[in-house]
Amino acid sequence: MVVAASLVVVAGAVAGVLAAFDDGGRASDEAGPPEVSASPRPAPLPAVPTRSAPATTASAPPSPSPSARRTTTPAPSKPAKKREHRTAVAGRLYRHPDSQVLAWVRSHSGDPRHAVIASRIAEQPAAVWFADYSPDTVTARVAAVTSGGAALGRVPVVVPYTIPGRDCGGHSQGGAPGLDAYDTWIDRFAAGLGSDEVIVVLEPDSVAQAECLSAGERADRFASLARAGRVLKAANPRARVYFDAGHSGWNAPGKQTAWLRQAGAASPESSDGIFSNVSNFHTTADEVAYDRRVLDALGGPAGLGAVIDTSRNGNGAPADGELCDPAGRKLGRAPTLSTGEARIDAYLWVKLPGESDGCKGRPGTFTASYAYDLASS
């Protein structure tokens, strides 16, 4: 059976005020290219359909991956401390003020869809994506988000998405020009994490979609991901870092777990657990069951948990396997750090509902008609 990969969001700069496209009759329906996040359109890969479309923010193309195993730059680290259990993040999630949906709400108060979109989508906290390779500015942009959350006593969710070879060279290709450059970018990303609680959703699809890489290229990527986890947690010991588990309709738990272990997801010095269902539609119940199977197989400290993207999974995945803005979907559970489920640390909106995959609106733009359909179903 053909399985579906995540529909991954592509992001631009964090700061800035968003403006609607001046596109005639569509201007009231679409927000402009995102300063915070955008969504690509899916395109198939052999065996595993992938998720993406041209990014709205240009990224440097990846360099060819080395054929021999690369020795990664060691992570800066503190003396290792053995940690067998960690408590879950407390408090409430942070809603960053610069997002496409908030820009649309601010500029379309007279639109008949305004109340529904404002109350059911715009008021919810969502992740902030960093998908452009911009090492000179990434520290300040991450700090703008984490300091904003800290000032309100809220927990931000940030998504680094610049792994080289992203999307296996497909429509969402981009990221850092090589793994050495990626390691440096992660160092600068980590420098913006601050000292308060923050959730890091580390590189969607970077593990689940690794089949397209050679064994040597996978080893190199997984070494950089493990290093990234160590760097992020060394920079901010209160950061919680989650690794890519794909979703319940993709790789079998055993296969996914083997790769996750190679990527450092079982090590408390790198990882707090796994994430699943990013930008996809599988039910929360299916994801909870899948994530527990992966965590059981993964081993590691008892405190390892999972976070699940529930932004568009209210009706589950479409029966026909459609990945591009499928009809009949609805919002899933609201983002929360209190799931009531053992080993499930949070339900998150990693993809912002209403940002089109490219079928109900232009790729990477907030489309009010799509958002309204999701929010009113």
Give an overview of the whole structure.
Residues 1-27 and 33-86 have low confidence and may be disordered. The protein has helices spanning 100-107, 114-122, 138-152, 179-190, 215-235, 253-262, 284-298, 368-376, and strands spanning 92-93, 128-130, 154-155, 157-160, 198-201, 239-244, 273-276, 305-309, 344-348. The chain is globular, with a radius of gyration of 19 Å. By secondary structure, it is an alpha/beta fold. The protein is built from 8 helices and 9 strands.
Report a brief summary of the structure.
The chain has 377 residues and is α/β, with parallel strands linked by helices.
Rg, Å, rounded: 19 Å
Please state how the strands of the largest beta sheet are arranged side by side: 2-4-5-6-7-8-9
Number of helices: 8
Q: Give the N-terminus to C-terminus distance in angstroms.
A: 29 Å
Mean of all residue-level pLDDT scores: 82
Identify low-pLDDT runs: 1-27, 33-86
Main beta-sheet annotation:
7 strands, parallel
Which range does the strand content fall in? 5-15%
* Derived structural class: alpha/beta
State the shape.
globular
The level of helicity is 25-40%
Question: SSE string, helix = H, strand = E?
Answer: EHHEHEEHEHEHEHEEH
Total beta strands: 9
